[in-house]
């Protein structure tokens, strides 16, 4: 539920009270229309009322715009915090790796001295690589975000990398070109992408060795294309019904996200969402012109 600031609430009360007063004044003046002075007074009162209402509505709109700006700044700060948290996590993991580096080398000594190449290969790929590849992968993924100059999106993707990591789900992000701006309100865009990426991650968790891909590209001029794909478990999924309320393959009461996406995108004639299935992959392509 949206809670309006106190000043805006007072403004709405003022408009309502003023309208109520004008209603009773008009009822009164209807009975004395023959009095020229009162009719003139009524005319000027109506003019003053209109001016006050226009002024009040202007202040109301300005207040809502300020609320929107504050909300956007809060989201930007939160997304930046998420990005910094992801960097801190990767840095901590890398420090652990460096700390264990000497110990890891020492653990190889016996295999080398005994010329046990087969045992060395098994130990290296089964134990060492399995233990450290997630840290190296996370570091690489955070590095790919350098081409993304939109802080809100950088923070969102960082938080999704951490979310996927907690679920032990591989998430690959590709941003080959510099993305400095997007022609869409960033609050709405982060909401849409958050839903789409969460859906892709949650749908892939139960599929062995699955990978979720997110790519952000420039198509032409300033147009941006965001592609999200994940392996599909249900080959018979009907994509014509996934935007229906409560339609979900993830359980009862969880099919609201895509409905919200559709409602948000209705406000953007320059944005299209294409959904398709290709070779057992569920693909969502968001085009922002």
TrEMBL record:
The keyword Transmembrane helix applies. It comes from the Bacteria. The chain crosses the membrane at residues 12-31, 43-61. One of its GO terms (molecular function) is identical protein binding. InterPro entries: HATPase_C_sf, NatK-like_C. Residues 184-288 form the Sensor histidine kinase NatK-like C-terminal domain. Keywords: Membrane, Transmembrane, Transmembrane helix. The keyword Membrane applies. It holds the Pfam family HATPase_c_5. This is Sensor histidine kinase NatK-like C-terminal domain-containing protein.
């Amino acid at each position: 539920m949206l809670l309006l600031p106190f000043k805006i609430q007072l403004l709405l009360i003022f408009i309502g009270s003023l309208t109520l007063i004008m209603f009773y004044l008009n009822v009164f003046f209807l009975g004395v229309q023959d009095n020229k002075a009162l009719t003139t007074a009524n005319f000027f009162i109506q003019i003053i009322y209109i001016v006050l209402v226009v002024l009040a509505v202007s202040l109301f709109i300005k207040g809502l715009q300020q609320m929107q700006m504050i909300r956007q700044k809060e989201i930007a700060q939160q997304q930046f915090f998420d990005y910094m948290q992801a960097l801190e996590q990767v840095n901590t993991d890398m420090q652990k790796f460096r700390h264990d580096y000497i110990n890891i080398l020492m653990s190889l000594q016996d295999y080398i001295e005994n010329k046990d190449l087969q045992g060395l290969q098994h130990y290296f790929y089964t134990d060492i690589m399995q233990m450290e590849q997630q840290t190296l992968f996370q570091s690489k993924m955070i590095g790919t975000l350098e081409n993304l100059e939109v802080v809100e999106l950088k923070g969102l993707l960082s938080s999704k990398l951490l979310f996927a990591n907690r679920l032990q789900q591989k998430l690959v992000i590709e941003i080959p070109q510099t993305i400095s701006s997007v022609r869409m309100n960033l609050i709405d865009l982060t909401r849409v992408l958050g839903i789409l990426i969460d859906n892709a991650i949650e749908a892939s968790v139960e599929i062995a060795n699955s990978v979720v891909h997110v790519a952000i590209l420039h198509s032409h001029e300033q147009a941006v294309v965001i592609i999200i794909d994940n392996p599909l478990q249900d080959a018979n999924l009907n994509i014509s019904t996934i935007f229906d309320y409560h339609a979900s393959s993830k359980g009862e009461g969880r099919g609201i996200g895509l409905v919200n996406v559709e409602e948000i995108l209705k406000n953007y004639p320059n944005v299209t969402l294409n959904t398709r299935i290709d070779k057992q992959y569920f693909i969502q392509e968001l085009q922002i012109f």
